[in-house]
Design goal:
- With 212 residues, the chain is α+β, with helices and mostly antiparallel strands.
- It has 2 domains: 33 residues; 165 residues, Beta Barrel (Porin), CATH 2.40.160.
- Helices cover 19% and strands 40% of the residues.
- An 8-stranded antiparallel beta barrel has the order 1-2-3-4-5-6-7-8.
- Strand 6 and strand 7 form a beta hairpin.
- It comes from Methylorubrum salsuginis.
- This is Lipid A 3-O-deacylase (PagL).
- Keywords: Signal.
Length: 212
């Protein structure tokens, strides 16, 4: 009687252990361990991306409304690789890409060159597959526009006050492929009230980019 009870108890314990092992294995299949974040690898080239595009010269100002002049701009920029790659995805987003670029006005109005940093953030990366992104730029720009007193502003020019100016820009972009992307852009330049006159420039346009 005692040995029969012992055998029965042993069978029950063995069955419970086997069921626990099967359940643990099943749970392991259903809930895999999430992949850890891996910091992006630094590219071999110092150049991260090149862009070309166009814009309309400040539609609400003298440079955009004066008849007899072209308001079209041709622009391009080079974005360098991030100088630092962070192991933390949160801090990685705060590291900008050094950027240098320029814009040439085909109507002889204000043209300029700029230098600064570009921050890029993917919008809803898991839902949109890292295709849609938002960008911001901050830096400085040197220009060939008018910087004298407002009373002497030439026809078709804005009174910019001084040079260089602060430049801020934003873009909403879409990655067609991992290499090619298109962007709608807006940019603004001004002296932030540090010079006598501060009409500034606000241009709207678009770019196409190639990432290395």
């Amino acid at each position: 009687m005692t040995s029969s009870l012992a055998r029965t108890t042993a069978l029950i314990v063995a069955g419970a252990l086997a069921a626990s092992a099967v359940q643990a294995a099943d749970l392991g299949v259903r809930a895999p361990t999430p992949m850890p974040y891996v910091a992006p690898v630094q590219p071999y080239s110092i150049v991260s991306e090149i862009r070309i595009g166009g814009s309309v010269q400040d539609p609400g100002s003298a440079e955009g409304k004066a008849p007899g002049f072209s308001t079209a701009n041709v622009n391009g920029e080079i974005l360098l690789a991030k100088p630092v790659v962070s192991l933390d995805p949160f801090w990685q987003a705060f590291v900008p890409r050094p950027t240098v670029g320029g814009s040439y006005n085909t109507g002889g109005r204000t043209s300029y060159a700029y230098l600064g940093g570009t921050w890029t953030i993917d919008l809803f990366p898991e839902t949109l597959g890292r295709r849609v992104f938002l960008e911001g730029f901050f830096g400085g720009a040197a220009h060939n526009g008018y910087t004298g007193p407002k009373s002497g502003t030439p026809y078709g020019f804005n009174t910019l006050g001084c040079s260089p100016l602060f430049r801020e820009a934003a873009a909403l972009g879409f990655r067609i492929t991992p290499q090619w992307s298109v962007m709608a852009t807006v940019e603004h330049m001004s002296n932030a009230g540090l010079c006598g006159d501060n009409r500034g420039l606000t241009n709207f346009g678009g770019k196409i980019g190639y990432t290395f």
